[in-house]
Write a structure and sequence with these properties.
The complex is a heterodimer.
Chain A (H helix, E strand, L loop, with lengths): L7 H48 L7 H26 L7 H28 L5 H7 L13 H21 L6 H22 L6 H26 L6 H14 L4 H13 L12
Chain B lengths: L2 H39 L10 H25 L5 H4 L4 H19 L5 H7 L14 H24 L5 H17 L7 H25 L6 H6 L1
The chains are: A mainly alpha, B mainly alpha.
GO molecular function (chain A): sequence-specific DNA binding
InterPro entries (chain A): Translin_C, Translin_fam, Translin_N, Translin_sf
Family (chain A): Belongs to the translin family.
């Protein structure tokens, strides 16, 4: 058969071709890993930005307003991340996406965490698969790449940790206790929803444990508040006033104080990269 | 989570689970075939050169039967999802390619190139995004062949075939020179490539033993033959 390679020259020719192919693969992989890292960094910044905006000391504005302000700032930043994904579009076109999915997935999950956090503050719901996919599509609604279900679920699963921080750091604020209870209910719902999906998604089991820990932290705080406030037979409004006066009277800058609390309560074991709040 | 979204997710999951099961069935089948292939090809170590064509004749039908499996897999895989599922069958596929390239070496002493290896397993160009023979899988198969040939060099001497080691030596060195052209990263391919030198050393030793005792025809004679 003439197609069979007999000479060293023809064999080396075939390998030349493989080299180009493998180089192309490795180079693209490196580029995507870099992009994914950029996405991760920006996403973390969005999350910190939201936390910061939520705990900024301005006691005048009401709670909904604070949330919305945080959301509008976050959205601006999220757009930057979406642009990064748009730029990756060519690299992961066609059958390439699944070849590099593992390299893109860390950034994607972090993005979903940030996006779903902003979404929660805006709508008090869990962002749907379709909505996440839509955020990763061009103006004509054509997706940059298919959203893997695993990444969607794992990204959402990380949201519970952020909500825990949010709940705990808002507890000393006006209306913070009812907020904490609300978040607590929501996280409980998430945990229940994810439980049924755990057998299908590999890493979800570990994340579920973290969710459970976060939930317990919120529950513990809610418990402490319930027990202590029972000592005073006062309406919630009045309690808010007392707490507020005490906090400002002690000369703390509220923001700092709350962040500190968030940190003390907020550390999750095995998640060091998230520990740095500033 | 709102029920509609949860429903949708469950639908997606069910679809994936179903697909995975179907692929798994095909892979089990594929695996059986490739095990038969390696079993048959193991006989090269005890088959005298004049009976090798008969041995190849028993291998060919099994190799051809792999075409059904690749066709069934290509049918199952959704467009653009080749890389999502390929890990499920890559071991079997590499073994099948190993059989194909080894058979070609035994038949003609040459290297079966990638496109022809894919063709031998019935993999069609138009399946590109669903089922294809990747360079990585093909290269893994070549390394398996070299591993096998180093054994063959030893065993053919035992069977009294003193020419085979010399042919193997030339062929394997050509392949090794080819692998040296690649910029391999620190992955399994790299590790297996690193192991090639032991195969080469083994083959060299056989060649040395054979030529030292003047058992093989002189190099110049062989070149003429």
């Amino acid at each position: 058969m003439s197609t069979v390679l007999h000479s060293r020259g023809s064999i080396l020719g075939a390998f030349d071709h493989f080299r180009d192919e493998l180089d192309d693969f490795h180079d693209r992989r490196e580029r995507l890993i870099k992009s994914s890292r950029d996405v991760t960094n920006l996403s973390k910044k969005v999350i910190f930005l939201i936390h910061r905006s939520l705990t900024e000391s301005n006691n005048q504005s009401d709670d909904g307003e604070t949330s919305l302000r945080a959301v509008s700032r976050a959205k601006h930043k999220l757009k930057e991340i979406q642009d990064l994904f748009a730029a990756m579009r060519e690299e992961v076109a066609g059958d390439r996406f699944w070849r590099y999915q593992r390299n893109v997935s860390p950034g994607l999950q972090e993005y979903i965490e940030a996006l779903s956090f902003a979404h929660y503050l805006e709508c008090q719901t869990l962002i749907s698969y379709a909505e996440v996919q839509r955020s990763l599509s061009d103006a004509g609604g054509v997706p940059y790449f298919p959203l893997p279900l695993d990444d969607y679920l794992l990204g959402l699963s990380d949201l519970t940790g952020e909500l825990m921080r949010y709940a705990i750091s808002s507890i000393s604020r006006r209306g913070g206790r009812s907020k904490a209870n609300e978040v607590c209910r929501f996280v409980r719902g998430c945990k229940a929803d994810f439980e049924g999906l755990t057998p299908y998604v590999r890493e979800l089991r570990k994340k579920q444990q973290v969710t459970t820990q976060s939930l317990e932290k919120i529950e513990d705080v809610a418990y402490a508040i319930a027990v202590r406030s029972s000592e005073y037979d006062l309406p919630a409004e009045l309690l808010d006033d007392i707490v507020e006066r005490t906090v400002s009277g002690a000369g703390f800058r509220t923001g700092e104080d709350e962040r500190d609390r968030g940190r003390r309560g907020g550390r999750r074991s095995g998640e060091d990269e998230d520990g740095d709040y500033d | 989570m709102d029920p509609q979204n949860l429903d949708y997710i469950n639908q997606l999951l069910d679809k994936d689970v179903e697909l995975r099961e179907k692929i798994k069935d095909q892979v089990t089948d594929f695996d059986k075939k490739t095990r038969t292939l390696t079993g048959l090809l193991n006989r090269i170590h005890s088959t005298p050169p004049n009976q090798v064509p008969e041995l190849i004749a028993t291998v060919t039908p099994v190799l051809d039967s792999c075409k059904e499996t690749t066709a069934a897999l290509a049918e199952l895989i959704p467009p653009n999802q080749f890389w999502r599922w390929k890990d499920m069958w890559s071991v079997s596929l590499r073994n099948a390619v190993f059989a194909a390239v080894l058979v070609e070496y035994l038949r003609s002493g040459g290297l079966l190139p990638l496109p022809q290896a894919a063709e031998a397993l019935g993999i069609k160009d138009e399946w590109q995004d669903r089922l294809t023979l990747s360079a990585e899988d093909y290269l893994h198969a070549l390394i398996s062949m070299v591993n096998e040939l180093s054994r063959l060099a030893v065993n053919s001497v035992t069977m009294g075939d003193y020419e085979q080691p010399l042919k193997i030596s030339t062929f394997v060195k050509d392949l090794f020179a080819g692998f040296a052209l690649l910029n391999l990263k620190n992955d399994t391919l790299r590790r297996r490539y690193d192991s090639l030198k032991y195969d080469i050393k083994k083959i060299e030793e056989v060649v040395y033993d054979v030529s030292l005792r003047k058992l093989a025809p002189a190099q110049s004679e062989q070149a003429l033959a």
